[in-house]
């Protein structure tokens, strides 16, 4: 089964059903942008979510936060994650964002290699607090 980089943008859409069926993360209605990669049968094989945030310091340019970059295991190594990230970077540039932030678990070394190939740097320490 060939995967095309047919990317769809969904603004604030609820993907609970479609994403759950595809075995990808579930989300609720939000203010960000989902980008989806589909195969020829229109099944979702990859997702990424980005939120553009206002900034109140420096030049007051917005920035983007990226989360939930996921590609189904069977479709990895085909450039899908890169295509999704390139699409999000395009959206960030079009929104005059000054930077993109993303957080990745320390154990996700394969993902870290992808981010480094895409020129994301590592000298940042992130924290998260789960509320549920």
Notes on the structure:
This protein has 132 residues and is an alpha+beta fold. It has a single domain (3-117), classed as Gcn5-related N-acetyltransferase (GNAT) (Aminopeptidase). The protein has three helices and five strands; from the N terminus they run βαβββαβα. The termini are far apart. Mean pLDDT is 76; it is low at 1-7 and 10-30.
Question: If you compute it from the alpha carbons, what radius of gyration comes out, rounded to the nearest whole angstrom?
Answer: 15 Å
Structural class: alpha+beta
Q: What's the SSE pattern? A: EHEEEHEH
Under CATH, the homologous superfamily reads Gcn5-related N-acetyltransferase (GNAT)
Instruction: Note the beta-strand portion.
Output: 25-35%
- Report on the biggest sheet: 5 strands, mixed
Please render the helix and strand layout as text.
Elements: E1 3-11, H1 16-21, E2 33-39, E3 44-53, E4 63-71, H2 80-94, E5 100-102, H3 109-117
Parallel strand pairs: 4-5
Antiparallel strand pairs: 1-2, 2-3, 3-4
Give a quick set of tags describing it.
132 residues; alpha+beta; Aminopeptidase; 5-stranded mixed sheet; 3 helices; 5 strands; 23% helix; 29% strand; globular; disordered N terminus
Produce a short descriptive summary.
With 132 residues, this protein is of the alpha+beta class. It has helices spanning 16-21, 80-94, 109-117; strands at residues 3-11, 33-39, 44-53, 63-71, 100-102.
């Amino acid at each position: 089964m060939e995967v095309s980089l047919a990317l769809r943008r969904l603004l604030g859409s609820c993907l609970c059903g479609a994403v759950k069926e595809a075995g990808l993360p579930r989300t609720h209605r939000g203010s960000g942008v989902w980008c989806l990669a589909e195969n020829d049968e229109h099944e979702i094989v990859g997702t990424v979510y980005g939120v553009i945030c206002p900034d109140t310091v420096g030049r007051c340019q917005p920035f983007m936060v990226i989360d939930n970059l996921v590609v189904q295991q069977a479709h990895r190594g085909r450039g899908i994650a890169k295509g999704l990230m390139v699409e999000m970077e395009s959206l960030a540039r079009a929104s005059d964002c000054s930077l993109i932030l993303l957080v990745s678990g320390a154990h996700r070394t394969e993902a870290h290699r992808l981010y480094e190939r895409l020129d994301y740097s590592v000298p940042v320490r992130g924290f998260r607090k789960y509320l549920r």
